[in-house]
Specification:
Layout lengths: L3 E2 L10 H5 L15 H14 L3 E5 L2 H12 L5 E5 L3 H4 L4 H4 L4 E5 L8 H7 L11 E7 L12 H13 L3 E5 L3 H8 L3 H7 L2 E5 L10 E5 L1 H13 L8 H13 L4 H16 L5 E2 L8 E5 L7 H10 L2 E2 L1 E2 L4 E5 L6 H14 L2
Parallel strand pairs: 1-11, 3-4, 3-5, 5-6, 6-7
Antiparallel strand pairs: 2-8, 7-8, 9-10, 10-13, 12-13
Helix pairs in contact: 2-11, 3-10, 6-7, 12-14
């Protein structure tokens, strides 16, 4: 039985065409800014986002870490959503390495309001509180099921931050999913924030790599911190070449993943014992409550595995499915058929 793997879009494999771009790409020492392929990718990314400059980093986690190091000082406070990836999945780097403290806001489907930000900002003249320095937005929001921030929502939150002289960083690991789903050019998002990190892997299908975009001053500082935390790379064109291919060829196809996620969500919701919040199915992530089946999430994951379906537990009663490149509509239909048979 062929496995249908919907654990994450991080399991996406690059196409042969993408890998072949590595063979003919000129290479050099990127720490010395001499890798032509990296330079081309960074220029392409900056242009695509309407930013002054961009910087290649090995991972999204490092991109977020470097951004915090640029924007914050030790003892500063960062306002972010209570289930944000930077808080939940990045091993406490903001405190362990940046020396910053999280100030958590409970959002609705991953989105918080300007009023919540206003309320969370610390008074500037206090000797008792850590100074607020940064507001972080995650778009799309992983633990909210891939939900999107609209450009209007980002603008409203950013205005409050700017009024208080705070910086705004967007963890845009899946920013192109948000762009496709909302019909928003990524330049519109960048205009509202100081920096964005985004992944070349996940939906864009690259084997490795993320990028930071921002103004020249931000990227100059980010380059220093990238080196400090071990992200300085030499012939990094072997990473950048697939990235160039991805930005040219892999963005528009994300709509297919979104369509497959909606098909999957409708099929799951029609099964006895499974609940799906359809309003949260905006991009390529589907979170399902399986408590009605009488099984825990771990038991449900194991049942799926026995039927050739690979997914992740996402809590005591919830599981997560992620559509991606390499998963076709026929795979979703086969998955639903297998699951329905197993639950009878």
């Amino acid at each position: 039985m062929r496995a249908i793997d919907l654990r994450s879009d991080t399991f996406t494999l690059p196409s042969r065409e993408m890998l072949e771009t590595i063979l003919d790409s000129p290479l050099g020492d990127d720490v010395e800014k001499e890798d032509e392929t990296v330079n081309k990718l960074q220029e392409m990314a900056a242009s695509k986002f309407g930013a002054e400059e961009a910087l290649l980093v090995p991972s999204g986690t490092q991109g977020n870490l470097v951004s915090m190091l640029v924007h914050c000082r030790r003892g500063d406070e960062i306002i972010l959503e209570s289930d944000a990836h930077m808080y939940y999945y990045e091993i406490g780097g903001m405190s362990a390495l940046v020396g910053a403290i999280p100030r958590l806001i409970q959002g609705t489907r991953g989105v918080f309001t300007p009023e919540q930000v206003e309320e969370a900002i610390r008074p500037y003249d206090s000797l008792h509180y850590p100074p607020t320095r940064l507001v972080e937005i995650e778009n799309t929001h992983n633990r909210a099921g891939g939900c999107c921030w609209s450009a209007k929502q980002v603008s409203a939150v950013s205005k409050v931050a700017k009024d208080h002289k705070l910086k705004v960083h967007m963890d845009g690991a899946r920013i192109f999913n948000a762009s496709i789903a909302t019909g928003t050019d990524v330049k519109q998002y960048k205009r509202q924030v100081d920096s964005i990190s985004f992944c070349l892997s996940k939906g864009l299908g690259c084997p490795i790599g993320s990028l930071l975009v921002g103004n020249k001053e931000f990227i100059d500082q980010a380059r220093i911190y990238r080196k400090m935390v071990g992200g300085g790379m030499r012939q990094a064109g072997i990473i950048a070449a697939p990235g160039i291919y991805a930005l040219k060829n892999m963005v528009s196809r994300l709509q297919e993943d979104h369509d497959n996620a909606k098909l999957l969500a409708k099929g799951l919701a029609a099964m006895d014992g499974i609940k799906v919040d359809m309003k949260s199915v905006q991009t390529n992530i589907v979170i399902a409550d399986v408590s009605g089946t009488g099984k825990s999430s771990d038991e449900f994951v194991e049942l799926c595995k026995k039927n050739g379906i690979l997914i992740f537990s996402f809590g005591p009663q919830t599981v997560r499915f992620v559509t991606r490149y390499g998963i076709a509509k026929a795979d979703i239909e086969e998955l639903l058929a297998r699951l329905e048979r197993s639950l009878r």
